[in-house]
Design a protein that fits this description.
elongated, 89 residues, single chain
Length: 89
């Protein structure tokens, strides 16, 4: 059984928390505005203008690297294989 704690680099962890805090606040505001009738493209604009794709990939890398040190590459790959991403309908 893998250890129940994962040591992480403090600077990277703080950066991850800041990004997550921004996303939660921003998505809440954006979805409230969309719910009030504003054009839903504001969500796409936020995602593109703030580089969320790259920032989320960086966060995934940080968490993945931290986990891999503890559970190993194969276990991390097994976790990743369980994810179902977006699919066209």
């Amino acid at each position: 059984m893998a250890p129940r704690t994962v040591p992480v680099e403090m600077e990277g962890f703080v950066e991850l928390f800041r990004d997550l805090e921004e996303y939660v606040i921003s998505f809440d505001r954006i979805l409230s505005r969309i719910g009030a009738g504003q054009d839903p493209r504001i969500l796409l604009e936020y995602v593109v203008e703030n580089g969320l794709r790259a920032r989320l990939a960086r966060a995934r890398g940080f968490v993945g690297d931290s986990l891999e040190e503890v559970i190993g590459a194969e276990a991390l790959e097994d976790i990743a294989d369980q994810v179902e991403g977006y699919r066209d309908k």
